[in-house]
Amino acid sequence: MDMQYKTQGTCSTAINFEVKDGIIESVQFVGGCNGNTKGISALVQGMSVEEAIKRLKGITCGFKPTSCPDQLARALESIQK
C-alpha cells in the first residue's frame, strides 16, 4: 500500500511510505532535516507498523508539539483506521 501523508507542524511537508502486510517497506520524507529523515527512514524499514508507532509517537522537536518521527507515527496510525 503506497500512501502519502501531509505533515503538520514540521519542516517536512509530506511523508511517502509503503506498508505491506503490516510491515514498513519504505519511507521518504519531503523536506525536513535531510540526514535525520533519512536516518528515521532507514531505522523503521522492516519494522512493524505497531512497533514504529509505539517508538515514535509523542516525540517533539524543540518547542514544537510534534516532530518528523511523531508525524510518521500519525501517518501510520491513519492507515490503521
Identify the strand order in the major beta sheet.
1-2-3
The helix/strand series, from N terminus to C terminus, equals EEEHHH
- Our estimate of the beta-strand percent is 25-35%
**Tally of helical runs:** 3
The main pleated sheet reads as:
3 strands, antiparallel
Q: Could you tell me the mean pLDDT?
A: 96
For the record, the CATH architecture stands as 2-Layer Sandwich
CATH class: Alpha Beta
Radius of gyration: 11 Å
As a percent range, the share of helical residues equals 25-40%
- What best-fitting shape do the alpha-carbon axes yield? globular
- How many angstroms does the end-to-end distance come to? 14 Å
Instruction: Give the domain tally.
Output: 1
Structure, explained:
With 81 residues, this protein is α+β, with helices and mostly antiparallel strands. The protein has one domain: 2-Layer Sandwich (Enolase-like, domain 1). Helix content is 37%, strand content 28%. It is built from three helices and three strands; from the N terminus they run βββααα. It has helices spanning 34-44, 49-56, 68-78, and strands at residues 2-6, 12-20, 23-31. It has a three-stranded antiparallel beta sheet with strand order 1-2-3. Helix 2 (49-56) runs antiparallel to helix 3 (68-78). The protein is globular. The two termini are 14 Å apart.
Lay out the secondary structure:
Layout: E1 2-6, E2 12-20, E3 23-31, H1 34-44, H2 49-56, H3 68-78
Antiparallel strand pairs: 1-2, 2-3
Helix pairs in contact: 2-3
Keywords summarizing the entry:
Enolase-like, domain 1, three-stranded antiparallel β-sheet
